């Protein structure tokens, strides 16, 4: 419908035309002769009205409950989908706020966007409606600009991978944390001119062999940082190697072969990830020592090579869990193919049975002190282990199938046979200590050569209850945003899954994740 101002303008135009038609032929001839002058005067009047009263059409406002979209700069759907997914993780945004206080607490004016953490925080807060903005569509080109300052050459006109960009961001944040002096690019004339001149008094001598500067630890635990545990057991002498801990930012899970009549689930992928594997022809020091004891006169014995069993488990679960489903496969001819199988996932994910716990450490008990055990110990700073209700299920320490560091090779399942695991029809989430809630899903449409990324994410919480979690889901494709149902989200072919840990009622609410050891 037209506004009253537009209707009045149309009425005045109709009256002028009627008056012009009622005039005589001579008058109409003179008017037509000076038509150019009249048109110029009319254009000037229209321009004046526009300047004074503004445009007739009103600006379209963003609908309630939706979030801003992101403009596609060419082929930047991979970046837009990842930013929308990260903006649905409140713990990550809170961590960025704490991390960037070092730049803003002593400065009256906000620093320029030369730090990745500040640029990322500004974008994520705008996408999560924590910053007031009237724009329906935002421009994230500033993120590409700051990543180029960290020596990442990412083109906005070439198709990229969202999972690779996720690791680019996490690794660049670590570089920013380390605060190593960055070498200025030779073509960055502006930065070279702004560098302070070094006086002879400022020049110091660096001796050879000096220790490298140690990196600063996070003030608070990085929400996406977790730890994997891996150990190997000799199948011949049952000797166990020391447990190894490795840091991860995301779990990259391969999709196992589907069985006819049985759907693929996320639990299948997780069990396939931690399932034990056989490593052949490994030198066992313990078997070599045993063989040397049986020889006479201390004769040298060749290194004994046996078969080891290797198994992974999650030693420390992060606060924000990013799961990457590997959909890349290779044909017999060596060509890349995309796997389109649907992997079932739920709104809540229990990770108790995938959690590593120390030998003899029961839920609710304190970890043994280093003087009380001969084996390697590590305070994982991640709360108690799995509850009794989970440990008592098949696959718990009673059967020793998933028990790291205490399982006998004779009790391990035959390789490469499938590993049994419980799949309850109605899981009891109340008994879970390591429970995660789904926050966002990134989906890739297309094949290995070309495609498009979209995101399903939760709507931001209301201003009245900012600590709550919204049950409204959104579907976002670059600058297009609409509401979606949970069923639509769970039916999608996920490529990236973003979960956030839910603290149970038995755990203290004020608990914080400590920094890494």
TrEMBL record:
A Gene Ontology term for the protein's cellular component: nucleus
UniProt record, GO biological process: protein deubiquitination; proteolysis
Keywords recorded for this protein, A-Z: Hydrolase, Membrane, Protease, Thiol protease, Transmembrane, Transmembrane helix, Ubl conjugation pathway
Listed CDD domains: Peptidase_C19F
Name of a matching Pfam family: UCH
The UniProt record lists the keyword Nucleus: no
Region annotation Disordered: where it falls in the sequence: 362-395
Root EC class: hydrolase
Boundaries of every USP domain copy: 68-502
EC numbers, comma separated: 3.4.19.12
One Gene Ontology molecular-function label: cysteine-type deubiquitinase activity
Transmembrane segments: 35-53
Reaction(s) this enzyme catalyzes, per UniProt: Thiol-dependent hydrolysis of ester, thioester, amide, peptide and isopeptide bonds formed by the C-terminal Gly of ubiquitin (a 76-residue protein attached to proteins as an intracellular targeting signal)
Protein family: Belongs to the peptidase C19 family.
Functional summary from the UniProt entry: Deubiquitinating enzyme that removes conjugated ubiquitin from specific proteins to regulate different cellular processes.
Identification of the protein by name: Ubiquitin carboxyl-terminal hydrolase
Gene that specifies this protein: USP30
């Amino acid at each position: 419908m037209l506004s009253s101002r537009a209707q009045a303008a149309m009425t005045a135009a109709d009256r002028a035309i009627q008056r012009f038609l009622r005039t005589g032929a001579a008058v109409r001839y003179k008017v037509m002769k000076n038509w150019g002058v009249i048109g110029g005067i009319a254009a000037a009047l229209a321009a004046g009205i526009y300047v004074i009263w503004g445009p007739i059409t009103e600006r379209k406002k963003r609908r309630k409950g939706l979030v801003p979209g992101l403009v596609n700069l060419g082929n930047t759907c991979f970046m837009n989908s990842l930013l929308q997914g990260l903006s649905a993780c409140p713990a990550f945004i809170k961590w960025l706020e704490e991390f960037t206080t070092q730049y803003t607490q002593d400065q009256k004016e906000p620093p320029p966007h030369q730090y990745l953490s500040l640029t990322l925080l500004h974008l994520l807060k705008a996408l999560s409606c924590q910053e007031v903005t009237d724009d329906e569509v935002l421009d994230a080109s500033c993120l590409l600009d700051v990543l180029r300052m960290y020596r990442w050459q990412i083109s906005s006109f070439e198709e990229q991978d969202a999972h690779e960009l996720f690791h680019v961001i996490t690794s660049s944040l670590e570089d920013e944390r380390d605060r190593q002096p960055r070498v200025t690019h030779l073509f960055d004339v502006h930065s070279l001119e702004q560098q302070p001149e070094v006086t002879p008094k400022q020049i110091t001598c660096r001796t050879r062999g000096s220790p490298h500067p140690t990196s600063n630890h996070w003030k608070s635990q990085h929400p996406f940082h977790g730890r994997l545990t891996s150990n190997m057991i000799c199948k011949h002498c049952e000797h166990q190697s020391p447990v190894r801990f490795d840091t991860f930012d995301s779990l990259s899970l391969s999709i196992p072969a589907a069985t006819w009549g049985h759907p693929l689930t996320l639990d299948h992928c997780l069990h396939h990830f931690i399932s034990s594997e056989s490593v052949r022809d490994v030198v066992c020091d313990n078997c070599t020592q045993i063989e040397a004891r049986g020889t006479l006169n201390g004769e040298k014995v060749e290194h004994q090579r046996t078969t080891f069993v290797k198994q992974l488990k999650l030693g420390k679960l992060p606060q924000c869990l990013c799961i990457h489903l590997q959909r890349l496969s290779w044909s017999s001819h060596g060509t890349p193919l995309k796997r389109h199988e649907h992997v079932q996932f739920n709104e809540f994910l229990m990770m108790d049975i995938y959690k590593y716990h120390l030998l003899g450490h029961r839920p609710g008990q304190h970890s043994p002190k280093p003087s009380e055990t001969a084996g390697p110990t590590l305070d994982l700073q991640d709360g108690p282990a799995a509850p009794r209700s989970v440990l008592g299920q098949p696959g718990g320490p009673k059967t020793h199938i998933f028990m790291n560091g205490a399982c006998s090779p004779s009790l391990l399942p035959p390789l490469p046979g499938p590993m049994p695991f419980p799949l309850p029809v109605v899981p009891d989430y109340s008994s879970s200590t390591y429970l995660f809630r789904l926050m966002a899903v990134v989906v890739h449409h297309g094949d290995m050569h070309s495609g498009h990324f979209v995101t399903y994410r939760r709507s931001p919480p209301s201003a009245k209850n900012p600590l709550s979690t919204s049950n409204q889901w959104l579907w976002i494709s670059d600058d297009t945003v609409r509401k979606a149902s949970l069923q639509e989200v769970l039916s999608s072919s996920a490529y990236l899954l973003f979960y956030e840990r839910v603290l149970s009622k038995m755990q203290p609410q004020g608990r914080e994740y400590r920094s890494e050891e």
